[in-house]
Amino acid sequence: MPIRYQQLPEIKVFTSLLRISKQQGSSLVLALFVIIILTLLGSVLMRMISTSSETVSQEVLGTRAYMAANSAMQGELQLLFPLNVTSSNTCDTEFTDKPYDLQTTLNQDITGLYGCTAATSCAPYHTGLDGTKYYRLTSTGECGSGFMDANSKVIVKSSRTIQVEARSL
């Protein structure tokens, strides 16, 4: 028995060819849409990562500047109130805006304070009726990721200031 194939009318064949051609164009548009969306998401993620790394860098430099200011303040207090000495020094011109080289002043090689500077000042602000002297000491530490010049574009600087009030014994 011979196998008979049923022939489709010409209208159905033409309609199915139109559907196939429309589907081929829509997949190209869909692929372009997905590529554009993924590119936008990638650029947003890159920007977020860049901002996050800048924030971490600023935090680290801020902490180093705080430690530089704290170290200089401790050195200043040691000069003002030396141990095992009955009399203490007073704030005078040698204590005003004194820069500290943190590596040589502290006689230690502190790698965490490379690229940091500190300056301190001391001012007497009150003398009590009993002769007690009150001092206000200020220390400012600065740390940076490079050196300032006219062409610097990738430099980050941070500064922290500490103020202490002390009195003579």
Average pLDDT, rounded to a whole number, is 76
Name the helix and strand elements from N-terminus to C-terminus, one letter apiece.
Answer: HEHEEE
Helical residue percent band: 40-55%
Q: What separation lies between the terminal Cα atoms? A: 124 Å
**Shape designation:** rod-shaped
Give the tally of structural domains. Answer: 1
Q: Rg from C-alpha positions?
A: 36 Å
Beta-strand content: 15-25%
* Biggest sheet descriptor: 4 strands, antiparallel
Counting helices, strands and paired strands, the structural category is alpha+beta
Description:
It is a single chain. Helix content is 44%, strand content 22%. With 169 residues, it is of the alpha+beta class. It has one domain (11-167). It has a four-stranded antiparallel sheet. A hairpin with a 5-residue loop joins strand 2 and strand 3 (133-144). The N and C termini lie far apart (124 Å). 14% of the residues are buried.
Task: Record the SSE blueprint.
Elements: H1 10-80, E1 98-100, H2 102-105, E2 116-127, E3 133-144, E4 157-167
Antiparallel strand pairs: 1-2, 2-3, 3-4
